[in-house]
Amino acid sequence: MPLIIDCYNVLHVSMPPMLAGLSEAGLCHALVRTKWAASGQPITVVADGRPKPLGVEASPVAEVDLVYAGSHRSADDLIIDLINAHSAPRRLTVVSSDRVIRTAARRRRAKDLASEDFIDQLCDQLRKHAQGPPPLARPQFAPLPPELVQRWKKAFGFKEHD
For the whole model, what pTM was predicted? Predict the structure, then answer.
């Protein structure tokens, strides 16, 4: 399911400690470790304005498109245009808490997700990703019988008192 994210709307949500101080680039990096990226569907993060000085101009990861709306247009307008231009809006998920954007998504029957709910889901997925697969069971070793220990000691030239 393609995903369009209202970047600054998401970044201005009260963040849990694991996402505190998240930037545009940080959001892109976090998204790579989620089910959304694993699905192979397009992920577009839309930000207002132009890149910040010393900020990234494009997404630092190939799986996520980071798009700036430019100086003469708002991210909201660009997101609404993307929703309206999408050929299969029912397969689209739009992330924003902005009422106008969510209304535009619903009008095209796209799934809309509040920024707060998205952050909750993102944290859950990042926690699962961080845990990774369960560790393999540690092999259990039984001590060697004393007679076998003596045989190995003799084979390697150890004296009886070693």
Answer: 0.77
